Structures are given as C-alpha cells and as structure tokens.
Amino acid sequence: MTSFIPSARIAVAFAAGLSLAGAAFSLDFPARKPGLWEMSMNLGATASKLPVQVTQQCMDAASDKAMREMGEGMSKDRCSKQDMRNEGGKIIVDTVCKLEGPSNTVATTHSVMSGDFNSTYHVESKSSYSPPMMGRAEGSIVIDAKWVGPCKPGQKPGDMIMSNGMKMNLLDKMGGKK
Fold this sequence. Notes:
alpha+beta; nine-stranded antiparallel β-sheet; 3 helices
C-alpha cells in the first residue's frame, strides 16, 4: 500500500467501521447527540507518515441510526464473529469480518470505545488482515470526537467536511438511506 489514503476514503471507512462496530449486538450501541461532531482520526504507527485527519460531521438521530443499520447489514453477511460487551464503562468490540474486494481479506479487529457519546467519545481500534490488505498485515486507528454545537447553516444530516475542505454526504455515499 502506498503511504497515502485519500481523506474521503478514511472518513467513509471510519463511518462504516464505527457503524459496523455498533451493529446488531446484544449490547445497545449508544446514539450520538444530534448536531455537529468534530472527529480527529489518527491512523497510528502503521501509517505514521499520514497526518491526523480532522473532519466535521452533521448528525441527527435518523442519520446516526442509518449508519448503524448500514453496519448491521454489512455485519450479517460478512462477519463470522461479533462480540460486544461493556467492561467498566468501556465498550469492547471484537469482530472477524470478510472485507469486500478481490483479495478475500479477513479483518480481525479489537476496538475499545469510551465516552458519553453526548459530548465526547474515544475509539482505539487495531486490526490484522489475512491475507494482507493493500500490502498491510495490520492497521490501527484512534478517533477522538467531540460535539461542537448545532450543525452549521446550510449543512444537512450526513454532511461531512474533511480537513481539506472537501464536503460529502455519508447518506448519499450509503445509497441515500434515511
């Protein structure tokens, strides 16, 4: 894999990953407070040359639910293991999922989520890939998110603005689910 991953791909991958982590488990995944969230995503030591990606995402209850439902649909078809539990106020998620693509890569992921999802949350996720995905046998991501207030004028739920100013709507990327 080259050392560059476009911001939009990281953002969509994160949104899908967070949705996948929160999907169809026996423990309810907390909904995020509606409004504008700022997320800092660090791809960790395995991609140390990449800068921290900062995005802002406008959410409402329906768009947050749509992303969780998207993850639920993905996990039903692709994951052979889905374990989610609460340990001391932290949500621990362990999954084994087949990723889309010609390589038939299986990702084994361990994630730890904390925060109140009303004002902040923190996610640390580590994955191993077999066979390696785009030349990488493992990867990690650390996400720190904070609620910054109501969505800005002109923003609609699902809108995400990358640090480079690029804007996209995650609901549109998911096929318009609302």
